[in-house]
Design goal:
Chain A is an alpha/beta fold and 322 residues long. Chain A contains 16 helices and 12 strands. The longest helix of chain A has 17 residues. Chain A is globular, with a radius of gyration of 21 Å. The longest helix of chain B is centred in the first third of the chain and has 34 residues. Chain B folds into 2 domains: 38 residues; 227 residues, MetI-like (MetI-like fold), CATH 1.10.3720.10. Classes of the chains: A alpha/beta (322), B mainly alpha (269). Chains A and B meet through helix 3 of A and helix 6 and helix 13 of B.
Chain lengths: 322, 269
């Protein structure tokens, strides 16, 4: 037994190099490329003082939060939605006031929801209200299983509330009646629209739309910016429980702060996300068109309210999908 | 008398003991945790989650599509097993090997492949002139694919072991080939066939990864019950998820009990 135990320790020793700090960043699906570039740049930036290695994990935002609740030792999280981090904070793994810990409500970059349509925009889709027309097929992931699906839903509902709060639910319902397939994640929705060529319009994160334009070879798409859309805030936080245990608090904070530097903001802008740094934003303004963006708090008061009145069982979302 | 060492009392005890411990750790503890988790809900809440209209539609789809695919598999699986055992042809080894492929293939890959193939832009979709993806038929097709090996692999060894003299005896006693098949061969294969059918059925009930890529996941229409479990999990509603899981578990359990009863019954006959 003792032999077994000591050989086990030896094994761990082999993987843990002296003087090297290892951080695990648990993030959501489409940020893989972004963080691998940022991590490289950060490791270079730190290399004169310390050897740092950042590991990344990607998956559906809520699923990732679930893994951390179940015990996955993430040093930092960078998830698609405030609710997912709140859920971890409720269990005490992250400090309650995490949103005030980092600049811009712990949001180092933002994005929005746009439309991707086929070349020449044959169905003349320009705004949310066009998606409710009877002969339009809309592709969007299920708000039940996908973070992107939730943002899309809120963007649409927010727009219709702004138009006329009395008919908003009716309009959203019409929109979702035009959805022939509710994929479980944003990526599967994108493949339904792009590879399987189903639907007239794909509702999608701006960064994913930009990626689709860049990568599609045999077919052409156009990005349509609706008159109004949502300020989609992926957020970051240090996971207190892990960093206390691993003694990595300082490094984890330094890593997250690094996301706000000019270097990181530049990488962010190159990867399809909107940087919060004014200067960098100006530089990339021709890509990230200025449109009317509303925050969740401005229209729906708070995320608690959103979850209670819209996404939880038997409420608005279930009503719309009926 | 020198009996083999594994019949010694002590060794026998240990082997049985470890088998039970192993099964408890791998099967019983995880399954009973579903039970405990769902007991966090009161009865009324449990019923409103597990048996609301949307869940009922999902059970219906899961049940019927698994049943259909098990039927398809039990007919073509019997023929396939027959061909592989009784006939010799070029490439037999190859076809025998690909029977197991659906089990080895990651289910998501299967789902994506079928989804692309049978959508209106896919090769099969173009060939047929209409789109099968995103309908309950697509669900039946993928389930047939993922549960293909069960019937074939259940019947195959039994058919291999079957004494040809049985059939020859029947023939010499004046039975025509059709009578021989229905009165001698089929009853002999029946228990194995049934096992294959029920395993394939049970597999279909629990399948998730491949189906979600082809079904379209429209509530009340093409939404399968394991997807409802995943939805609950995404909302951190673990108790709700285990409520639906419990229904599926109970159903599969009943199927397997039924299988045992039928097996015993056919043995007695």
């Amino acid at each position: 037994m003792r032999l077994f135990f000591s050989s086990f320790l030896l094994l761990i020793g082999c993987f843990h190099k002296e003087d090297e700090i290892v951080l695990l960043n648990v993030s959501y699906d489409p940020t893989r490329e972004l963080y691998s570039q940022i991590n490289q740049s950060y490791q270079k930036f730190r290399s004169s003082q310390k050897k740092v290695r950042i590991l990344q994990s990607h998956g559906g935002s809520s699923k990732q939060a679930g893994y951390i609740l179940a015990g996955l030792r993430a040093d930092v999280v960078s998830l698609a939605m405030q609710t997912d981090i709140d859920k971890i904070a409720q269990k005490g793994f992250i400090e309650k006031n995490w949103r005030e810990k980092k600049p811009n409500q712990s949001t180092p970059f933002y994005s929005t929801v746009v439309f991707l349509v086929r070349e020449t925009n044959p169905k003349k889709i320009f705004d949310w209200k066009d998606l409710t027309q009877p002969n339009i097929q809309v592709i969007t992931p299920s708000p039940k299983t996908s973070g992107g699906g939730k943002w899309n839903f809120l963007a649409a509902y927010g727009y219709f509330l702004n138009q006329d709060s009395r008919t908003a639910i009716q309009q959203v319902k019409k929109l979702y009646e035009n959805v022939p397939i509710l994929d479980t994640s944003s990526r599967s929705s994108a493949s339904t629209f792009i590879q399987r060529k189903i639907g007239d319009v794909l509702i999608i994160w701006e960064n994913e739309a930009l990626l689709a334009l860049k990568e599609s070879k045999d077919q052409k798409f156009e990005i349509i910016y609706p008159s109004m859309s949502i300020y989609a805030q992926p957020m970051i936080a240090v996971v207190n429980r892990t960093v206390k245990l691993k003694n990595t608090e300082e490094e984890a904070n330094m890593y997250l702060d690094y996301l706000y530097t000019k270097e990181a903001q530049e990488i962010i802008a190159q990867n399809g996300y909107r940087p919060i740094d004014k200067e960098i934003y100006e530089k990339y303004k021709n890509i990230y068109k200025e449109i009317n963006l509303f925050k969740v708090e401005e229209v729906f008061k708070s995320w608690e309210e959103v979850n209670k009145k819209i996404f939880s069982d038997g409420n608005l979302l279930d009503e719309v999908l009926k | 008398m020198n009996s083999p060492i594994y019949y010694s009392k002590k060794i026998k005890f240990f082997i049985i003991f470890y088998t039970i411990v192993y099964l408890v750790i791998i099967v019983i503890i995880p399954l009973s945790s579903i039970f405990f988790k769902s007991s966090e809900l009161n009865l009324e809440k449990f019923f409103s989650i597990a048996f609301n209209l949307r869940s009922l539609y999902a059970y219906k789809l899961s049940f019927l599509s698994s049943l259909f695919s098990a039927f398809i598999n039990s007919i073509f699986g019997l023929i396939t097993a027959w061909v592989l055992v009784r006939y010799d042809f070029l490439g037999k080894k190859f076809f025998d090997t690909i029977i197991d492929f659906p089990i080895a293939l990651p289910t998501a890959v299967a789902g994506l492949t079928f989804g692309n193939l049978y959508s209106k832009e896919g090769e099969m979709g173009k060939l047929l002139g209409f789109q099968i993806s995103y309908t309950p038929i697509a669900v039946v097709i993928v389930l047939t694919f993922v549960s293909l090996p069960f019937v074939v692999r259940s019947i195959q060894p039994v058919l291999e072991d079957m004494d040809l003299e049985l059939e020859q005896a029947a023939a010499s006693l004046g039975a025509n080939p059709i009578q021989t098949f229905f009165y001698v061969t089929l009853p002999y294969l029946f228990p194995a066939w049934l096992t294959g059918f029920i395993l394939s059925f049970a597999r279909g009930i629990g399948e998730y990864g491949s189906v979600i890529f082809v079904s379209g996941n429209i509530p009340y229409f093409t939404e399968i019950s394991p997807l409802l479990v995943v939805m609950r999990l995404e909302q951190f509603d673990y108790a709700g998820a285990s409520a639906i899981a419990l229904v599926l578990l109970t159903f599969s359990f009943c199927l397997l009990v039924l299988l045992n009863i039928l097996e015993n019954w056919t043995k007695i006959k």
